[in-house]
Amino acid sequence: MTNLEIGIERLLNRLIDSLPSFISAILVLVIGIWLIKFLLRVLTKRLNKGKIDSSLTNFLLSILKAILYILLLLTVTSTLGIPNTSFVAVLGAAGLAIGLALQGSLSNFAGGVLILLFKPFKIGHFISSSNGVEGTVQKIDILYTTLKAKNGTTLYAPNGPLANAVINNVSDNENRMAEYVIGISYNSDIDVARNVILKTLAADPLVLKDPAPVVLVSALGDNAVNLTTRAWSANGDFWPTYHRNYQLIKQELDKNNIGIPYPQREIHVISDGPAPALGAE
């Protein structure tokens, strides 16, 4: 028997010996793929019923799918008798290197998960945060939130700092309170000024009757008595109502001769004796 024949015989023997493991690996692969697809379908239905944001659902399912297929690959190679120690070590080192390189992105990812889960704001809400972000929310992605600023520019806010900041959600409530601080002179009648302001607000159909507007003395300033006025309106009518009534209140106060003073100083000259005559030495 030649060396070639001996080699072929040994190869055939090895193939025959490994045939059960090969068949087992194929069965594990087929069944594993079916189980992964079944599990992903079930989870997709569950997550959709839970009203979780679609972008978060897709991202989590993608991560889970990748993890499950890696585990399936390790199981198949183990069934074939291939040692997985080196493979696992390579995956661990690669994961560590990627994690160190993407620390900021991982923080943004965690922030995006929190925002999409707890929903402190939604698309269309106007928000401002303690880290200086302000605008109307246009889009919420897993890493960044896109906002439209008041001046029309687009802001891309990382979700990590945004999730850890104090969020002032202006649009989350149906109604919103406007506050006007109006100073009147000390010579003016406070009750008259209060009635003028309340009548002005009552004439505006966009100002809510409940809760009713109020006018309170908030401070006795250096030059004026400050009246703080609070009035409620629908959130969508807030800014037009706010600016219009500021103007109308000023005009009505002028009609009723209620002055709004400007900062001024009075200087009193005190002399101990008569002023010297002109030309005197």
UniProtKB/TrEMBL annotation:
Top-rank lineage group of the source organism: Bacteria
TM stretches of this protein: 20-40, 60-82, 88-118
Cell compartments where the protein resides: Cell membrane
Key words, A-Z: Cell membrane, Membrane, Transmembrane, Transmembrane helix
InterPro entries: LSM_dom_sf (IPR010920), MS_channel_1st (IPR049142), MS_channel_C (IPR049278), MSC_TM_helix (IPR008910), MscS_archaea/bacteria_type (IPR045275), MscS_beta-dom_sf (IPR023408), MscS_channel_2nd (IPR006685), MscS_channel_C_sf (IPR011066)
GO cellular component: plasma membrane
Residue span(s) of domain Mechanosensitive ion channel transmembrane helices 2/3: 63-103
UniProt family annotation: Belongs to the MscS (TC 1.A.23) family.
PANTHER family xref list: SMALL-CONDUCTANCE MECHANOSENSITIVE CHANNEL
Name the UniProt record assigns to this protein: Small conductance mechanosensitive channel
Species whose genome carries this gene: Pedobacter caeni
